[in-house]
Amino acid sequence: MRSMFATLASEISMMTTLFCRNDKRLPMKRAGGAFLAISLLVLAACVHSLTLQSRDGEKLSGRYRFGTDDSGLIQITGPGDELLNGRFVRVARATFVKNYEKTFGQGSIAVYEPDAADYGIPFAGVFGSSSVLTDVAHGETFNKGAGKSEVTVRGPLFYWTASLQSKRGATMECYLIGSSYTGHGFGKCKSESGHEYSVDF
After folding, report:
1. Residue 189: is its pLDDT beyond 70?
2. Phi, psi torsion values for 78, nearest 5 degrees
3. How far apart are CA 74 and CA 48, in angstroms?
4. Following DSSP, what letter does each residue of 117-177 receive, concatenated?
5. Which domain, by its residues, includes 113?
6. Do both 105 and 133 map to the same domain?
7. What is the pLDDT of residue 146?
8. Are residues 110 and 140 in the same domain?
9. How far apart are alpha carbons 17 and 35 in whole angstroms?
10. Strand order across the beta sheet in which 109-112 lies
């Protein structure tokens, strides 16, 4: 019995190392129901970082972790080290784009989904793999170190929204879009005072 728990502990330790890396990609070489179940538990416990930058160069840091039901927790260290906490939830693309543009302006984000019919593959989304067809999203970044003002993310995309609040009453609304391939993405946050931040994660 002890050896079984020792083996399990070793597996969990190895998976934590694999899953909690910065790239957050899932390893594909190992298979098995137990491995998958434990992997999902480990992934939920991982804490990932994100960075925010305003147009005038102010930088903030944050972190998030996955929860259940397509949701998770997010924390941002705001100006004056004020902690803003909240929960992010996954939303439909149309809802995300509508609310993003309502918050940041018309045309502030562009999301494209390839039309399988344009590729001569009428059943691409239904039968077999359509991995060659990926969604693409473009948005604005304030990170001058990136050398450009636009960011792009590709893949099957996920869309998160979050409402954050501090104990002192400060609030922030965040919109994050990322790639299911890499786990990385971009977004924007807006404080109650109207201050905007681009987000990289």
Report:
1. yes
2. -85, -175
3. 9
4. GGGT-TTTTTSS--TT--EEEEEE---GGGSSSEEEEEESEEEEEEEEE-TTS-EEEEEEE
5. 47-200
6. yes
7. 65
8. yes
9. 14
10. 109-112, 135-140, 150-155
Q: Are residues 41 and 51 in the same domain?
A: no
The pLDDT score that the predictor gives to residue 101 is: 95
Are residue 149 and residue 139 in the same domain, yes or no?
A: yes
Instruction: Please give the model's pTM, rounded to 2 decimal places.
Output: 0.70
Judgement on whether residues 31 and 126 belong to the same structural domain of the protein: no
The domain total for the chain is 2
Contacts 24+ apart (CB under 8 A), 21-26: 22/48, 22/49, 23/182, 23/183, 23/184, 24/48, 24/182, 24/183, 24/184, 25/181, 25/182, 25/183
Give yes or no for residue 48 having a pLDDT over 70. Answer: yes
**Model confidence at 143, in pLDDT bands (50, 70, 90)?**
confident
Same domain? 33 vs 125? no
Instruction: Tell me the mean pLDDT in the region 169-187.
Output: 95
Residues 21 and 74 in one domain: no
pLDDT at residue 12 tops 90: no
Q: Which amino acid is at 63?
A: R
How do residues 49-101 score in pLDDT, each as one tens digit? Answer: 999 999 999 999 999 999 888 899 999 999 889 999 999 999 999 999 999 99
Could you tell me the CA-to-CA distances from 152 to 21, 141, 184, 186 in Å, in that order? Answer: 22, 10, 11, 8
